[in-house]
Structure formats: C-alpha cells, structure tokens
C-alpha cells in the first residue's frame, strides 16, 4: 500500500500557500478526512480559519479520472447561483509541488449526514432535510450553463450513450474478474437506450446526502461536495442516482433505505421524491425511469470496480474500505438488471 495517499507533505504545502492564502505564515495542522474514496482530502487548520485541500492521488490513474481541475472550475462557476458550494481559493496543477494537482477551498462547517435514515433526527427534521435535497437538485438542473460559463463543460450528444461507453471502457480497464451480471447489464442498457429528449444541463454525478453539508441547527444545505463526476448531461441521471442509493441496504456500507419503514421515519417514498423534484422543475412526470435507475446502478458498479482496482494497486485513499466497497459490484449489477426489467 502506498502511504502517499494517506499523508500530505506539510512543508511543501505550507511553502506553496504562504503568501497566497492567509494563515500559512505560521504553523498549521493537517488532518486527513477518511471519507472520499477517489481524491484524498485534508483539513488545513490555521489561525485564520480552516481550509480543505483536495488532491489527485499519485500513481498511474485511469484517463479522465480524479479531475480536481474540473471540480475546482464547476464549484467556482456556481458561486453566485442557488446551488450552495464552498468558496474556491486556488488550483495548483503543478505536480512538482506535492506530487499531484490539488485545490484549496473553504472548510464549510455543519452536519455531514452519512446515513439517510438520520438516526439522530425526528420525522419532521428528516422530511425537511430530504425536501432540501429535492430543492437543491432542482436548482442545480436549472442553472443557466451559458450564463455561468459552463456551456463547454461536457460534450454534446446523447448523454447516456456517451456515459455508457465511457464507463464500460473504465470498467474494462479496472476489471479484476469476470462478473457475468455486469456483462449482461452492459448489453441490456445498450439495447434499451432512450432517444435524446433535448434536456441538457449541469449534472453533479454523485448527488446523495453524504455529499452535502447541512446547517448544524436546521435543514438548510450549506454546500454540495465532491464534484469530480460533474459534467453537462441529462438531469435524470442525478435524480436516479438518489433513488438508487436509497434502494441499497442500510448501514455503513450500503448507506441505503432498503426495507426501512420510511413513513414512520418521516422519509418520502421514491415516487414522492420524484414528484417533488418534478413539481419544482415544472415537469408532468418521467417516462422510462427504470432505464435511468438501471444506468445509475451500472455506473456505480463501474466506479466501485475502479475503487477496488486502486486498492489492489496500492493507490486507494482508504484501502480497507475500498476492498469492502469493491465487493458490491455484482450487487449493483443485479440491481441494475432488476430495475431495467421492471
């Protein structure tokens, strides 16, 4: 296992940020976050306030993966929109500074809810948080990409066709064993590909409750995090991603709501959340949602396969957790086939 993903060159970071950001003319503390499998993330505690440094992992990486420059660009572009993001400070693309590209942003204080069951909340509070998730998601998909300078943030054409080809290629590049269900799902999605419907906007790519920071005393979202997979694409991918996550097993690994009495907890059904989102966007409904849900399961399976491959290669941010997550690939594939067949 490489220790480079677990540590940060304190001296090199300080030398680079000194004179560029307040707080680095004296000693500061570095603390690594254990969350975030893709790009290692660190808290920088200074006398002037706290920052977050997010870096590309060192080593041989899949092409187009770990794009911290894109993360920086999209969050900077969203600064004056209705989508809450952390304040971006600087991007360093010089690998010689710490061994890989990185960016620094404000640390956003608040609650990071890693379990969608929200065990420490009451039904009313849970309902308010999920409604805020719906509001922020609809706001994201209504961002004027031309006005914020993101019209070229993704290529034109059928988003799902493009994404299926991309993630199939990524999956093959990180494949460690033959998983028949994944092969079957890829073929099924190719056959079921819907026609382009004209919807094109900014998508987050991994929109879920644990990639958000909420106010410590209420449901207001303070920042949406982890924009590595963001691009210009079809908004239903993000919506289906939320539903996909909820259909996973509950607990620290699945982080889902499968088998949970949602009504008793104050949580909406899948359909109620979809209807809330559609109402905010002025949509009558969504046809063929099974395809979008199936695609979400496939893509997450591909992502987790990449996480497993990095763990085996010694480049994972959290190796032990990475291996556990890699065990979910076949489960995601089976779930994708089930969603498509429904």
From TrEMBL:
It comes from the Bacteria. Residues 31-253 form the Aminoglycoside phosphotransferase domain. Transmembrane segments: none annotated. CDD domains: ACAD10_11_N-like. PANTHER family: AMINOGLYCOSIDE PHOSPHOTRANSFERASE DOMAIN-CONTAINING PROTEIN, HYDROLASE, PUTATIVE (AFU_ORTHOLOGUE AFUA_1G12880)-RELATED. This is Phosphotransferase family protein.
């Amino acid at each position: 296992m490489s220790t480079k993903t677990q540590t940060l060159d304190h001296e090199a970071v300080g030398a680079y940020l000194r004179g560029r950001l307040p707080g680095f003319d004296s000693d500061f503390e570095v603390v690594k976050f254990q969350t975030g499998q893709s790009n290692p993330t660190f808290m920088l505690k200074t006398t002037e306030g706290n920052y977050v440094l997010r870096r590309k992992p060192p080593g041989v990486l899949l092409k187009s993966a770990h794009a911290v420059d894109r993360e920086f660009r999209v969050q900077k572009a969203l600064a004056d929109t209705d989508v809450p993001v952390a304040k971006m400070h600087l991007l360093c693309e010089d690998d010689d500074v710490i061994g890989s590209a990185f960016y620094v942003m404000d640390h956003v204080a608040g609650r990071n809810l890693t379990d969608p069951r929200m065990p420490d909340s009451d039904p009313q509070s849970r309902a308010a948080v999920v409604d805020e998730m719906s509001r922020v998601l609809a706001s994201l998909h209504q961002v004027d990409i031309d006005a914020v300078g993101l019209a070229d943030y993704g290529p034109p054409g059928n988003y799902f066709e493009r994404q299926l080809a991309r993630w199939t290629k990524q999956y093959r590049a990180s494949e460690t064993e033959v998983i028949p269900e994944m092969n079957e799902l890829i073929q099924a999605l190719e056959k079921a590909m819907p026609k382009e419907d004209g919807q094109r906007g900014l998508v987050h790519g991994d929109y879920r409750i644990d990639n958000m920071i909420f106010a410590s005393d209420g449901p207001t979202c303070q920042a949406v995090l982890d924009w590595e997979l963001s691009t210009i694409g079809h908004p239903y991918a993000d919506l289906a991603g939320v539903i996909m996550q909820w259909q996973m097993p509950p607990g620290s690994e699945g982080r889902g709501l499968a088998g949970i009495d949602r009504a008793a907890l104050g949580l909406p059904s899948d359909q109620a959340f979809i209807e809330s989102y559609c109402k905010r966007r002025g949509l009558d409904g969504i046809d063929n949602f099974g395809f979008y849900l199936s695609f979400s399961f496939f893509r997450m399976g591909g992502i987790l396969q990449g996480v497993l491959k990095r763990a085996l290669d010694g480049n994972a941010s959290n190796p032990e957790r990475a291996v556990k997550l890699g065990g979910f690939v076949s489960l995601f594939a089976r779930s994708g086939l089930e969603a498509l067949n429904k």
